[in-house]
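Backbone-to-sequence.
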């Protein structure tokens, strides 16, 4: 303090020291409070089952102390296991539910000879799980198969959504190459044994590892955990397991026919939408991400330097985008 000011105010040196100490303590206390408020320590993920219409549905849950719920919907050929790195990154701030679809992961898998698997069936069981857990509102994270499951849930209950988070989840023909569209059409309409055998081959060990998980990361395969395909292949050991996925691939073309309904939902309700899309995905291409902007022009779009399984490649980056996006909704 300047001597003249000190003399005018008649402040003794001992008082100056006390003031400085007080300010330092106040600043450190404030800083501690800010860090405490901003801290987002992950909560322990728990592994549970719920009885939904007489079937056991497995789900991962974390962050139960938070009000905002995010439901993570996985893709093919995976389960909630694909979100194992994303869940703890979000659970410090949000309540997370990540189910395994009926017929996938640890959930029940009724015999496909007596139970036909469709995306409508999967959506009914996820919706049933949320009803069982008394979750009335939620945000949806949709990836791959998660898009047709999620959009069916939204059409059935259009007012329960807080926000939509899209990660390589198609709702537009622009997001599918011509070859991919033809594949889904043939899978649905061609009932020959040769076509069924072709679809069945997509569920083989070689196809899951090389044409799914490692396809988009050939220059840096070390980013992809072998736990991913090891886990999935464990649940594709039997012919019945594989036929479940075959039936869903056969049903996938009906999603393309339903795209106009999903787009109409987006136009009508204008849900807050975050798009985090792996631009290196050669099957669900980046044009599908940009197409969302036609119907939800205020959507937040980020094209990531990753592939179809971006949640495996870049969970931290995706989590940061989700946290920032969700925080904006509460401001």
């Amino acid at each position: 303090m300047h001597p003249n000011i000190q003399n005018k105010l008649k402040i003794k040196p001992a008082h100056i020291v006390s003031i400085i100490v007080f300010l330092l303590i106040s600043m450190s206390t404030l800083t501690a409070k800010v860090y405490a408020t901003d801290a987002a320590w992950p909560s322990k993920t728990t592994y549970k089952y719920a009885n939904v219409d007489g079937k056991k549905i497995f789900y991962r849950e974390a962050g139960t102390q938070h009000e905002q719920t995010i439901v993570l919907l996985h893709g093919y050929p995976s389960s909630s296991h694909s979100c194992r790195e994303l869940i703890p990154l979000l659970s410090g701030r949000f309540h997370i539910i990540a189910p395994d679809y009926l017929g996938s992961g640890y959930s029940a898998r009724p015999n496909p000879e007596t139970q036909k698997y469709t995306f409508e069936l999967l959506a009914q069981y996820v919706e049933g799980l949320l009803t069982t857990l008394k979750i009335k509102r939620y945000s949806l994270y949709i990836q791959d198969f998660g898009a047709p499951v999620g959009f069916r849930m939204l059409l059935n209950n259009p007012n329960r959504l807080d926000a939509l988070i899209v990660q390589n989840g198609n709702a537009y023909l622009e997001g599918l190459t011509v070859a991919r569209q033809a594949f889904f059409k043939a899978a649905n309409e061609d009932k020959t044994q040769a076509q069924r055998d072709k679809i069945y081959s997509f569920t083989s060990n070689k196809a899951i590892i090389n044409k799914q998980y490692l396809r988009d990361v050939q220059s840096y395969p070390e980013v992809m955990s072998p736990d991913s395909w090891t886990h999935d292949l464990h649940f594709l050991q039997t012919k019945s397991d594989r036929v479940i996925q075959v039936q869903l691939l056969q049903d996938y073309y009906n999603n393309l026919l339903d795209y106009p309904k999903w787009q109409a939902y987006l136009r009508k309700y204008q849900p807050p939408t975050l798009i985090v899309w792996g631009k290196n995905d050669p099957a669900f291409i980046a044009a599908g991400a940009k197409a969302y902007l036609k119907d939800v022009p205020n959507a937040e779009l980020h094209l990531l330097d990753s592939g179809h399984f971006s949640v495996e490649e870049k969970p931290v980056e995706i989590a940061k985008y989700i946290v920032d996006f969700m925080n904006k909704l509460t401001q």
